[in-house]
Amino acid sequence: MPIVNTFIHFITLGALCCVLPVAAKDQHIELPLDKIKLPAGFSIDVWAKVPNARGLALGKKGTVFAGSASEGKVYAVTETDGGRQVKTIADGLNLPLGVAFRDGALYVSAIDRILRFDGIEEKLDKPGKPLVITTGYPNEKHHGGKYIGFGPDDLLYVAVGAPCNTCEVDPETFALISRIKPDGSNYEVFARGVRNSVGFDWHPETKELWFTDNGRDWMGDNIPPDELNRAPKKDMHFGYPYCHGGDIPDPKFGAKRDCSKVIPPVAKLDPHVGALGMRFYTGKMFPAEYRNNIFIAEHGSWNRRNKIGYRLNLIRIKNNKAVKQEVFAEGWLEKENNWGRPVDVLVMPDGALLVSDDFAGVIYRISYKKP
């Protein structure tokens, strides 16, 4: 799928900036945080109120950027002396789920296009109109929000979901993770057979890409699993739509491919948990045992008879392999009622972990103090 390098001004934005003062002392949001279970020494607080907070990115000067989906907005959160301000830096966008930061510029996915706000941290009050670096991505809304992030190769990675639950698609257009240059040129597919990835990160030592993938629906409550995958090189195929979880043939398409020849997940997650954002923990605040392990935000099931997910999962890594899974934070789901849905995670410079929640409309901060 060719990507057109447009560099044209985007002219369909609504209001470009609105400042919502949110001081830490004013964060009296009625959420039952005391019900969140964490390991000893960890605590969770509401860090900022951000409607429909989805993808997170960190600016060079400490600004936290948050994309959204239903709101059509992009937010910037700044902090001074413990107080926070939430600013709307873009409005009227189409599914601006993904955000990424590079060389002073904020990149935003808006369904079929990638936008760039140059010098954004110097003009949060008046960000101006962004450049459109490409309009070459598909505009189907089913799995249309696109997670983005810059890799160690200085290329922008863009996940493109399948426009359906399960279907055969053009392998150059859908169900993949692509990458482009920062100017929008040189589109190429990096990984195929990826149903819908809404989170990825690179191993801090090997620099290999790891990503989550949501399993298909309507095969039952207990299959297939969601996935954590590793892509050490280009052109690997992870099975969709022929095989799920590495070894489960699709009822309709499974006969078309040998599941033993697709790349299996490095970890099979629980079925239908909605595994979205993930990050390797590279901070120094948490105990050393957490370093270089993976936190995954599980958004939660939507059509399983008994709900599952709505939590943070921890994947322990050893010798570049996933060796153990454990629940790190839970409590957003009480019996069959949920009051929050984790979406993305972000490691802050002080080592704290931010977690976006599009259901509660907040960003949490998880910190650690030795008991």
Task: List key phrases describing it.
371 residues; globular
What report would you give on this structure?
The structure is a single chain. It is built from no helices and 31 strands. By secondary structure, it is mainly β. A 5-stranded antiparallel beta sheet has the order 1-11-10-9-8, with no helix packed on it. A 5-stranded antiparallel beta sheet has the order 2-7-6-5-4, with no helix packed on it. Strands 12-13-14-15-19 form a 5-stranded mixed beta sheet, with no helix packed on it. The chain is globular, with a radius of gyration of 19 Å. Residues 1-27 have low confidence and may be disordered.
From the helix content, strand content and strand pairing, which structural class follows? mainly beta
Q: Tell me which oligomeric state these chains represent.
A: single chain
Average pLDDT, to the nearest integer?
93
Sheet with most strands: 5 strands, antiparallel
What Rg do the Cα atoms give?
Answer: 19 Å
How many strand units? 31
The strand line-up of the biggest sheet is 1-11-10-9-8
Helix fraction by DSSP (H/I, runs of at least 4): under 10%
Treating each run of at least 4 consecutive H or I residues as one helix, how many helices? 0
End-to-end Cα distance, whole Å, is: 54 Å
Content of β-strand:
35-45%
Q: What is the 3D shape?
A: globular
Name the poorly predicted regions: 1-27
